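sorry for the late reply, my laptop died twice this morning and i had to redo everyting from scratch. anyway the thing you sent over, i finally got around to it. pasting the sequence first so we're on the same page, its 293 residues, then the predicted structure underneath. double check i copied it right bc i was rushing
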Amino acid sequence: MADGKKTSTGVLFALCSIFTVQIGAAASTPVFASIGPAGTAWLRLCWAAVIFVAIARPNLRAFRRRDLGAAVLLGVVSAGMTITFFESIARIPLATAVAIEFLGPLTVAVLRRTNRWGLVWPPLALGGVLLVTQPWFGLTDAVGIVFALGAALCWAGYILLTQRVGERFHGVAALAISMPAAALAATPVGLVQALGHVTPTVVLACAGLALLLPVIPYTLELLSLRRLDAGTFGTLMSVEPAAALLVGAVMLHQFPGWGQAVGIGLVTVAAIGAARTGRAAELVTPVSAPLAG
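ok and here's the structure:
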């Protein structure tokens, strides 16, 4: 009974994390009109850096130089992922962007598959993405798709770097190094978009967005991972495209056609399949990411 309650609590934490990520992404879109997608990403990363440094207070001299380098590289990739994702959802529906972006972790999981079933999931995911974007109708912004693909590539790199960094740091120490690096990496693009448009209201709004992404989801994921095995957690993370569909409909009034809904379903099934037949932990990505979605 105790184990069942522990598992149920872990599932609840994981689902809350998933929806908080998508709500945070949707809540970011109104700020785009003031300081642009990259400007929003930059200010939010600045706040996240301040929060995690205040929490962890890292002693840089306690870490080896190559470990610090890996954490800084993780921050640069995180900045790229955040900016490209925000630029994509400024142009295409949230669920569409998340479905395309999810090709990143799915590819990593498939490449590290443990059996031949893993070969089934890429064509299924590709079919889903085609249904979501419907290029034959010319309905989706091509630039938005390119940004979403860029976010997918960054997310794949983020996963690989997170695994490497996670072995060398404890708790949120890595984030206390990678988030300032991410904020600095985002500055050249984000500052250009935001310059001249930053107001106290915008600054406070981005502080709240930083709590939604990544502070609260990351905390929920840590709590969840203490109660669930990696396979279960990885499978739960695979429902993000479906969560993005629901949040996009409720918060942004983005209602997909039946074909797009089926496509998102196919991507979700492919992600779950990849998590179960590959190394499930490949889809376990502490949400200093989408920062994304």
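The chain has a mean pLDDT of 87.
thats about all i looked at so far, will dig more tmrw
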